[in-house]
């Protein structure tokens, strides 16, 4: 939130306006994320979490303002960003072995052709190590649990040694135990590599022990700060555009609108809604990421 630029800025978002279908999803938003921060990205369904990540990837033009990623202008296919898109359906049915699945996301382009395959093998080994997934490497995806598949998806994002990870709702459809496992794993890897993580989620509580700061989106605005700074009645009421209460119970935080817990409300909404996430020309016979892949080479997967 400081006005001074620093070499430690992983993301610098200044007066950014993002529009979709003629509507401002973000309106003159400014915030700065430091290198090595774990940022929980929260906000009601449709607040623009996915849209913001797509803008950081250069997949969506800015209507106004500027974004720097590690001090550089946004570019498509930025090798310093690892991206886990929100759409990940269809993985559970796949017979492909864990290792091959991770390797599919490797892009030989980073290494130059002659040595590509050896370099890719080494990098696949490195990322499998990082997420402790060697035991999963020989097993088909279809035999893995949701949490185990998530570990391999994280491995994919780590290929090529990115400095920033954009993880879009990695906890969706995981049970609470696996959710904790995924958050802990991301936190451990993030610290080990001193990389920056943007981790979007519906619910704050699974992230509470791991995040450094929260980026809360709503009503076209963005609030970045510590949990104590952002998860407050005045800040959230402004972001939701309606009166919000914040309750703390046994180390957990509940964001309430009237007597309804707002995150549960969102979630219920999403489950019945096949909505805009399939806006891209998406091939449902395959896994996630195709729509993105067609536009940039970020998405890992086939
Ligand atoms: N291609 C599109 N055209 C118009 N509106 C869109 C498009 N894609 C998403 N939206 C809208 O943009 C808003 C932000 O969406 P999104 O970034 O997916 O929110 P979140 O990830 O926070 O749930 C939503 O209101 C959504 O309906
Ligand atoms: Mg989203």
UniProtKB/TrEMBL annotation:
InterPro entries: AAA+_ATPase (IPR003593), ABC_transporter-like_ATP-bd (IPR003439), ABC_transporter-like_CS (IPR017871), Metal_Ion_Import_ABC (IPR050153), P-loop_NTPase (IPR027417). Residues 11-244 form the ABC transporter domain. Residues 269-288 have a biased composition (Basic and acidic residues). Gene3D superfamilies: P-loop containing nucleotide triphosphate hydrolases (3.40.50.300). It comes from the Bacteria. GO terms for molecular function: ATP binding; ATP hydrolysis activity. Residues 289-302 have a biased composition (Basic residues). This is ABC transporter-like protein. Keywords: ATP-binding, Cell inner membrane, Cell membrane, Membrane, Nucleotide-binding, Transport. Residues 269-302 are annotated as: Disordered. It holds the Pfam family ABC_tran. It comes from Caballeronia choica. SUPFAM superfamilies: P-loop containing nucleoside triphosphate hydrolases.
